[in-house]
Design goal:
The protein is α/β, with parallel strands linked by helices. Helix content is 26%, strand content 19%. Strands 3-2-4-1-5-6 form a six-stranded mixed β-sheet, sandwiched between helices. Strand 2, helix 2 and strand 3 form a beta-alpha-beta unit. Helix 1 packs across helix 2. It starts with a strand and ends with a strand.
C-alpha cells in the first residue's frame, strides 16, 4: 500500500466583501493573509510531502492568492488546478473531488472555503478532535488552517474511518 497525505486548507485572511460587479469571488487576501499563506507554506516545506503533489483550488481570488503564497515555499509543487465547483461547495462535492483524484497522486492539497472546508476537516478528524494536538479546531476552522491526514487507502476509499489526522498547522 502507498502512503498518501490529504491536506485540507482554508484560504488565508481575506478582505471584506466587495460591493462591486465582481462580488465575493474577487475578495483579495489582506496583508496578514499573505503572511499567513507564506507561513503555512514554510511549515509544509518541512514535512517532506510525498510526490507527486496535486493541488485543487477554488477559483476565488483569495484561494488562488493563498495557493500562490503556500506553493512558493514548495519548489516541486505543480500549479494549482482551479475547480469552479470548489467555490460554494458542500461536503459531498469535496468528497467527490477527493475520490476522483488519480491514484498516482501521493499528496492532495485541497484549498477552499468555510463552512465546507472546515466541515470536511472536522468530519475526517472525528475523535482526534478531542486530543490536545487538535485543540485549535474545536472552535471553528480559522483562516489559513491546514489539517494533515495520513492514509494508505486509494483516494476513492477516503472517509473518516480510512484516514488518520496527524497534525494541524496554523500560521
Amino acid at each position: 500500500m502507498t502512503e498518501r497525505l490529504l491536506l485540507i486548507l482554508r484560504h488565508a485572511e481575506a478582505g471584506p466583501h466587495l460591493y462591486s460587479g465582481s462580488g465575493d469571488i474577487e475578495r483579495p487576501l489582506t496583508p496578514m493573509g499573505h503572511q499567513q499563506a507564506a507561513r503555512i507554506g514554510a511549515q509544509l516545506a518541512k514535512l517532506e510531502l510525498p510526490g507527486p503533489v496535486h493541488v485543487l483550488c477554488s477559483p476565488a481570488r483569495r484561494t488562488q492568492e493563498t495557493a500562490e503564497g503556500v506553493l512558493s515555499a514548495l519548489p516541486d509543487a505543480a500549479a494549482p488546478q482551479l475547480e469552479k465547483n470548489l467555490y460554494g461547495a458542500g461536503l459531498d462535492t469535496l468528497y467527490g473531488f477527493i475520490h476522483a483524484t488519480p491514484e498516482d497522486i501521493r499528496t492532495l492539497l485541497l484549498i477552499g472555503h468555510n463552512p465546507a472546508i472546515g466541515t470536511l476537516a472536522h468530519d475526517l478528524a472525528g475523535p482526534a478532535l478531542q486530543s490536545d494536538t487538535f485543540a485549535a479546531l474545536r472552535h471553528g476552522y480559522a483562516p489559513a488552517t491546514l489539517t494533515v491526514f495520513q492514509t494508505q487507502e486509494d483516494w476513492i476509499n477516503i472517509r473518516p474511518s480510512t484516514v488518520k489526522a496527524s497534525q494541524v498547522l496554523i500560521p
